[in-house]
Queue: 2 jobs
Job 1
Amino acid sequence: MKRILVIDDEEWLREMVRQALQQKGYEVIEAEDGVAGVEKARRELPDLVLCDVNMEKMDGYLTLSALRQEPSAAAVPFILMTGSADNAGMRQGMELGADDYLPKPFTLDALYAAVETRLKKAQVVRQEAEKKLTDLRNSISLMLPHELRTPLNGILAYGEILATGAESLPASEIAEMGQTIHDSGKQLERLIENFLIFAQIELLGTDAQKIGALRLNQTDSPARLIEERARKQARAANRLEDLGLNLADLPMPISEEYLAKIVDELVQNAFKFSERGSAVRVALSDGPNGVALSVADRGRGFSTEHITRIGAYMQFDRKMQEQQGLGLGLVIAKRLAELHGGTLTIQSERGTATTVTLKLPKVVAT
């Protein structure tokens, strides 16, 4: 049974709406003003909210704004009821996140139509989320075994040689095999880490409450973290002299953990797909629409087709480049950007250069 919260300071209207909706099989919760409505929405988690615009204690716009900032109720469909549905008021409501308007006075047919339409749309969103989870499971079952076997085969093969014939091998060969085992182990570690992170953020993306909580995190002074992670990747590639940094220390609305992951993936890709001696530039800058982190290289670049096909478990020109791994780095960075209300874009010229830019909203001062 779907649960609907009706917020209105006129008791007779709440009673009329309650009786009408109960006749259609809905469970109805009532609140006499916006303050009580926000509390009941937080506690009861309704499937839809019907809210009057003109109320004394807290009007419909403030109620809507409060609920959209409440992680547990941020995604609940919200219909504003008003006797003055002018363009300015409707625009204000839509900008705050209203899903629909129900002009007063309304007929029961109009009430039923508005409620059923919004509930059906919410169901479609849930079905799409479930489809994404199904696609994720299918992708994992098809691709993960092969990807994990690649480094594992190296570990097992060299481990067996060392276990059965180490006494007959020169020290240099033993050291070389040990290094190969270590490198394969690190590769396997990264594969598992990326797989777990990707699965985590895909599941997180289906939960409005968790997304709301996620967006409350921020990194106040990201410049040092970005520099540390970029230098770590440069050292790993043995290309510290190729790294250039231009970092304005601007607060970013993302946790240190996820920011570090994005920097690692973008900078590692920049070194992986560019030649030694060519520059990799990392910059953090302020802009009119938010803060931007960019990573630019002078490598082989992506084609337009490749850029538009960024997706999970896909690597670009894998056979030609002989790169192993799930190919999740850019996808993880892109999904993290989206979950934090931002974007990740790629500008690239085939065989010349690539710039990947993460843009996030500015941190709102409190």
Note: The chain has twelve helices and ten strands.
Job 2
Amino acid sequence: MINIVYRLKSPKFFEESIDEIELDGVVVRPTYLSICQADQRYYQGSRPAEILDKKLPMALIHEAIGEVVFDSKCNFKSGDKVVMIPNTPMGDDVCRANYSYKSKFRGSGFDGFTSDLIKLEDDRIVKLPDDFNDKVCAFIELISVAYQGITKFGEIAITPKDKIGVWGDGNLGFITALFLKELYPDSTVTVFGKHQENLNLFSFADEIYRIHDVPDNVDIDHAFECVGSSASQSAIEQIIDLINPQGTVNLFGVSEYPIPINTRMVLEKGLTIQGNSRSDREDFIGVVETLKENPQLFEYLEKLITNTCEINSLNDLKEAFDKDYLSKFGKTILKWNI
């Protein structure tokens, strides 16, 4: 079957390519996609030159839903709404697929979802209820990243979870704090951020503080760092200062540069530092089930949608990326009409 793929050839320049896909798995037509900061780093050319040379041209975007067009095994019906899983295991490993060097990740190691059709194995999609909000579902992948980190936290935390702190007032911080409050309703969830206009949206949190205005008597049992870049250094410093002994520090933020950590206090307090990256099928399933059981979460998640762009051409795609880049908070959703 003929397929058109829309690849980033060089920073800010997309091109069309004609590929063929075989009808031996599940074929999905993308319907709604969501731009991630990782996509922007490729589009803006802010990744190191050697990485851009190695990975481009490449189709971007790893957050997307679509409709099933064909399934060779007949496990899915034509028209089924599904979320697509970008992480693709490439063999057995002792660790989870999202941490395995053998796995390939769409929009990073190989083509993402900006194409007419996507061919996947049936374990790389999860069926969605028809009444789910399509625009929110477009970024279920991002939600699944927070979900897998929270799940891992529940497995390793050995001290009480009475007071949980989330550092970061961006998209991931919002989602992480929201799901922590839903999954740990008896815990006090406190959000620490820099931008008051963003913090005002965290209406579900028990407490919010600007990072430079935290009372002296505040402490936490466990922390989630959702800041990233060079700012994660000051966030981790504050976390180590405020966290109680034997707490867990759950890191989500990505930085292009090494971040120093006060290991003296990590040792003195007996802290556990856990890294979190990406997700896998069980996390997508967990998110879908959580949303089924708690439909009120959609109302909060809709607050993250700041732009919705109709994509009918490559020029529309470029304009959507430019518009997203100017947004300081929230998600840009692409209604994929190409």
Note: The mean pLDDT is 96.
